[in-house]
């Protein structure tokens, strides 16, 4: 499980052309960072669910918090954790990409402040259809 935690952005396949089409419709420019962030958010959600089933929510949250994935005392993926995946020094770069993912229909909740983070609540229907077909 720990090895899976350490390689979160590498095990998702996205249908690039559909993303590109949706971004074009919304006049957005996507880069690799958008895909990496989305991949991490999806994978952390799955891992958290698996760990919760195995260990219980409290222990699962504490484990992910210890690994630096979750912000302190929450179920939000840390902005600090996410920024390393897009190789940026500022969490603003993460926040901007998160806002653009929202424009594509992803529902992502934000926890503001120095211990801020992000939580993927729902994916758009077009994305769910893509995942089902893969």
Question: How does this structure look, described?
Answer:
- Helix content is 58%, strand content 10%.
- The two termini are 23 Å apart.
- By secondary structure, the chain is mostly helical.
- A hairpin with a 5-residue loop joins β2 (107-111) and β3.
- The mean pLDDT is 86.
- Strands 1-3-2 form a 3-stranded antiparallel beta sheet.
- The protein contains 7 helices and 3 strands; from the N terminus they run ααααβααββα.
Q: Secondary structure elements and their pairing?
A:
Blueprint: H1 2-6, H2 16-25, H3 32-55, H4 57-66, E1 77-78, H5 79-85, H6 91-103, E2 107-111, E3 117-122, H7 125-133
Antiparallel strand pairs: 1-3, 2-3
Helix pairs in contact: 3-4, 3-6, 5-6
Low-confidence stretches at least 5 residues in length (pLDDT < 50)? none
Fraction of residues in helix: 55-70%
Strand line-up across the major sheet: 1-3-2
**Sheet with the most strands, sense and barrel status:** 3 strands, antiparallel
Structural class: mainly alpha
String of helices and strands: HHHHEHHEEH
The end-to-end distance, rounded to whole angstroms, is 23 Å
Beta-strand percent range: 5-15%
How large is the radius of gyration?
Answer: 15 Å
What is the 3D form? Answer: globular
Number of strands: 3
Q: Determine the number of helices (DSSP H or I, runs of at least 4 residues).
A: 7
Average of the residue pLDDT scores: 86
């Amino acid at each position: 499980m720990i090895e899976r935690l350490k390689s979160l952005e590498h095990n998702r396949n996205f249908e690039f052309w559909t993303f590109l089409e949706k971004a074009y419709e919304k006049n957005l420019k996507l880069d690799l960072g958008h895909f990496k962030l989305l991949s991490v958010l999806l994978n952390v959600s799955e891992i958290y669910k698996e760990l919760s089933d195995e260990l219980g929510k409290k222990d699962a949250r504490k484990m992910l918090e210890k690994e630096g994935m979750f912000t302190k005392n929450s179920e939000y993926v840390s902005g600090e954790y996410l920024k390393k995946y897009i190789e940026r020094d500022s969490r603003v770069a993460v926040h901007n990409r998160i806002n653009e993912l929202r424009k594509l229909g992803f529902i992502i909740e934000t926890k503001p402040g120095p211990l801020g983070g992000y939580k993927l609540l729902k994916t758009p229907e077009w994305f769910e259809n893509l995942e089902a077909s893969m």
